Amino acid sequence: MxxxxxxxxxxxxxxxxxxxxxxxxxxxxxxxLAATAPFATLVRAAGLEFRALPGDTRPRGDVTDRRELxxxxxxxxxxxxxxxxxAVGEGADLLLLSATTAPLGxxxxxxxxxxxxxxxxxxxxxxxxxxPVVTGARSLGRFGNRAAGRLALRMADRISEPGAARLRERLxxxxxxxxxxxxxxxxxxxPVLHGYSTALVPAPSDWRPGLxxxxxxxxxxxxxxxxxxxxxxxxxxxxxxxxxxxxxxxAGEGERLGELAVRALRxxxxxxxxxxxxxxxxxxxxxxxxxxxxxxxxxxxxxxAAVVHHAGAGTSAAGLRAGxxxxxxxxxxxxxxxxxxxxAIGAATAPLPYASLTAEGLAGAxxxxxxxxxxxxxxxxxxxxxxxxxxxxxxxxAVEGLVRAG
Length: 406
Prior knowledge:
Number of helices: 14
Order of helices and strands: EHEHEHEHEHHEEHEHEEHEHEHHHH
Helix content: 40-55%
CATH architecture of the largest domain: 3-Layer(aba) Sandwich
Number of domains: 2
Radius of gyration: 21 Å
Distance between the termini: 11 Å
Strand order of the largest sheet: 3-2-1-4-5-6-7
CATH superfamily of the largest domain: Glycogen Phosphorylase B
């Protein structure tokens, strides 16, 4: 079967699909992954065909401003829709759509008659169990959570409306609003498999049929890849260090955050690794602090005492997989949700607010995370649960079911 995975967003929104795609390819399927241009090397390194989607997903402006984020997202989806049909609709037997690309992919599936399956990294359907992941809100009670979830979907419809309308026109389809298309998929119980662990978010009991949480899809890592010699030597030279990184967040804040991180590490009496990321995090701090670039979580995290991160879905899951505690500093979007989930299962300290982060506050959280065994114990328990899940295998079973049905 020729399978096309369509994903868009930051690296954390694309990287998990490289592992999923590699697993499908190993099972004998032809797999292409459509994403924006910066991820071409990442996709091809996993042995997958790359198809370019238009648009630039690099964070811009104030990423903590919700209205600005909505304007940016709408502009991106509108641009994405202009080239979506060209990139995605070439000879696929099955479309696998992320939460970002599904509002466009539904229309393409209608036009071409191609079956489609949702492969989401976050829960998006309303539930009484928790508030919508994108709002960063605390629980509003079961009724309030469901109401907020429905409102979040309507806001998402508004964001995707311009791009979806132009795509339908391009495809020669009659006009149909984004909300009407979403409701159509819901009534049809369109299947969505969610690539996160139920150790972190148990599947809600009030979800409609067709929605499942199946376990994580892990980024592809070349089996021959090893840690850089300089990093391996640092790890061997002393007790397990703490990693501090903010992924694709905090652009332009590298110098400030680097100095803050070093002060926190020294105050807590810990060795540390700074991961540069989009922030350009770095510090010239002597033999107990090392700065690194891109390193696979799967290789590095098992060697750590703890990790400080922005609570992106992928980094949150990688820390649990390694059985290490976290100190979270969520910045925007779904990050507060994952930060609270980590704290709720006892694998992380209470989230630290990014806007008012201090060296003293970070040092205190690090001291608790590293030296109180309860945090590491909860992380190890989650890791054991995650080892019982096989998210890629669950997707493969769904794909094979579609093959048999077809």
